[in-house]
């Protein structure tokens, strides 16, 4: 990759966190020219490079020290942290700021016709999710013996397709659950976007730049309140 003296920030390339993260960087005075299909964007007025990637890759890029900062949803961050801990990979990071976007919750949902009497109703059931580590941690805490079915997409159709009895997926308005004949049963994790930093020590120059950017970020966030 390019000049290691430049601060590297990972941002979701295309998705629910992209626009808000890039707008925030622009609002704190970082000039960016983002061209479609390119993995990297150089700032024209600051020693900063953006790495535009899938959100799933961002926790690992920060934890492996490939980038210095990353904008990521807490759901994805916590899931990847658990996954990496399970396989003995470095899983440390520093949370710099909680941000005012990307809000959602990871919830269990069951078909409307299921006689749901609380979490015990999932004993022995199959639950489809994209977040197996968060879900298994929850089941363990609650002493529920259920199996998880990993799906990277279309989780909400799993019960209808006969693939699982229930699901555990991200919810914001609840419209997707409703459209698929599902009802929210239990909230297992509440999430929003966060800005994280790699855990190892950065150069003085990079740390000074971060210290200059954070108060500006706080100013932008406060101005919106
Ligand atoms: O391609 P890439 O891997 O980068 O993107 P992605 O498809 O994995 O992620 P994306 O862009 O959908 O979401 C990125 C992050 O946005 C998530 O990890 C969350 O932190 C956050 N976020 C906030 C959400 C939602 N709200 C959300 N509603 N992510 C997904 N959803 C989906 C949910 O999975 C379900 O399909 O929206 C649907 C439910 O929405 P409602 O409004 O119908 O309840
Ligand atoms: Zn993703």
Automatic annotation (TrEMBL):
Principal localisation: cytoplasm
EC number in record: 2.4.2.17
Cofactors, names only: Mg(2+)
Gene Ontology terms, MF aspect: ATP phosphoribosyltransferase activity
Activity: how regulated: Feedback inhibited by histidine.
Domain spans labelled ATP phosphoribosyltransferase catalytic: 54-218
Tagged with keyword Cytoplasm: yes
Annotated keywords: Amino-acid biosynthesis, ATP-binding, Cytoplasm, Glycosyltransferase, Histidine biosynthesis, Magnesium, Metal-binding, Nucleotide-binding, Transferase
Segments forming a coiled coil: none
Pathways involved: Amino-acid biosynthesis; L-histidine biosynthesis; L-histidine from 5-phospho-alpha-D-ribose 1-diphosphate: step 1/9
Subcellular location: Cytoplasm
Top-level EC class: transferase
Catalytic activity: 1-(5-phospho-beta-D-ribosyl)-ATP + diphosphate = 5-phospho-alpha-D-ribose 1-diphosphate + ATP
Function of the protein: Catalyzes the condensation of ATP and 5-phosphoribose 1-diphosphate to form N'-(5'-phosphoribosyl)-ATP (PR-ATP). Has a crucial role in the pathway because the rate of histidine biosynthesis seems to be controlled primarily by regulation of HisG enzymatic activity.
Family as reported in the entry's similarity comment: Belongs to the ATP phosphoribosyltransferase family. Long subfamily.
Protein name, per record: ATP phosphoribosyltransferase
Gene: hisG
